[in-house]
Amino acid sequence: ADQKDETGYLKPLQEEGLYAVHGVYEPGEDGYGRREIQARSGMKVAAVVEDWPRGDMNPRGRIVDVLGEPGDNDTEMHAILAEYALPYRFESEVANAADMISEEITADEIARRRDFRDVLTFTIDPADAKDFDDALSFRKLENGNYEVGVHIADVTHYVREGSVVDEEARSRGTSVYLVDRTVPMLPEKLCNKLCSLRPHEEKLTFSAVFEITPLGRIAGQWFGKTVIYSDFRFAYEEAQAIIDGGAKATHEGVPEQIKEAVLVLNNLAGKLRKKRFASGAISFDRPEMKVEVDEKGKPVNVYQKVSTEANWLIEEFMLLANRSVAEFVAKAKKAFVYRVHDEPNQEKVDNLRNFISNFGYRMGPTGNGKEISKELNALFAAAKDTPEFNAIELLSLRTMAKARYDTENLGHYGLAFKYYTHFTSPIRRYPDMMVHRLLDSYLSGGASADESKYSKMCKYATEREIVAAEAERASIKYKLVEFMEDKVGYTFGGHISGLTEWGMYVEIEPTMIEGMVALRDIRSDFFEFDADRYRLVGKRSGIVYNLGDPVRIRVKKTNLEQKLLDYELIETGLEERV
Q1: E-strand spans in 132-175?
Q2: Which residues, at least 6 apart from 518, have a Cβ–Cβ distance to it below 8 Å?
Q3: pTM (2 decimals)?
């Protein structure tokens, strides 16, 4: 109290360069211990603005956390989380409550479940994954069909509705994936231990089990609580090696029956995928770039993440489980949580039609959603491997509505599903926990839930998802700018990824890192933005720059604080003229 001024706000200790910060803490060595710290002048802090009186130049507020020295990796990542009001540690009450949850799987609990412990089961995940929330089981049936189980961690068995841990998970809404860390929705004991379907451990699961014919037709399905024992854990690369090698290949350490299961499941997934696209699913294939960091969080590489058949194998069976669960409840006419995706806005589709005409492409009728998806897929096929492809795919993405959670079943346009939900990732998404609780209730004969209650929860979960995605993008932008800091003055080839009245955006190769060339910095001519034809035109020379055009740039400046990259255009004298 003696360190506050007459307004009640903190005053600086000028002689020491310190601000007195009472009640600001950081984790101790155990992750939960807390100690009071002080902020030195120049440090980054998180503050809450509480008042901004009319006429005052500055707002008034209070410091709620000391983040650390600017430029330090932890400081900057915590600053991004603070900017989006996201937590970066669990309060001791939540962590302690999670630690108190029993790990014992009792005989009575197993007796209440369908037992899959003797059925061949395995997981396929990224090589660096720590939490495994889904597994697949496989066995041949006497009638020639296959039984495929999609087994999902039974998080809600451990996290009771209304508990301290549940309320924290609901508040967070989702795990947040920054470049160098995961900020989990659930404490570590749950996400990495109790609920993680680790190999050679008995685990409690909530499952969707399917009977599938060799031609990929769903002949039967069952939903319910199960117990499993995972026999093997694959990284995607290991599973892909089996797929690439085929039935005759040998793989050291992989039992023959597991190799056979991977190959059969991959074949079935291919049939499910083909049927989905034939039904109108849209084939977006925009490259996803990943930033690799060292142990100190410094970016050391930027590379393209490649999806393989092993990724698609898991994807198709997760989609099947999500779709089937949604259809089962929808047909029971009970309140539920759906993952919905509206059809594109026709005005945006017309704008896309006008844009692609500049490149000589045409779209047929787009009067309904199925026609739109057909024309988009045809457009992507026609533009593949052209300079303008990335621009066309990006603008096509912008015609799409945003997926969201809703209690009204509107279908999922992008996947071409009439019914869809999120059932398969309860470790990292709270809506999946909501779905598990509702499905469990309905399988037990429970009455329809309060739809208005779940409608509010859906809206909140969608908001948390958006915030998490924005924070994730901010961390990527920060690390990309940091990666380019020692490349100022270097030249790169690239292509124009965006055009505005103030500049052109360029993605360089091969990293696809985007920066801006300000029009005022192009000395050879005065360039104007032609909004109707989406291009830049030199007023004197007539030189034209279109979206997707190849260009060469020099890295001019980096701004880590604002996450900005400035490029300057290197003109070759070979630019297109009208």
Answers
A1: 134-140, 146-153
A2: 502, 503, 566
A3: 0.88
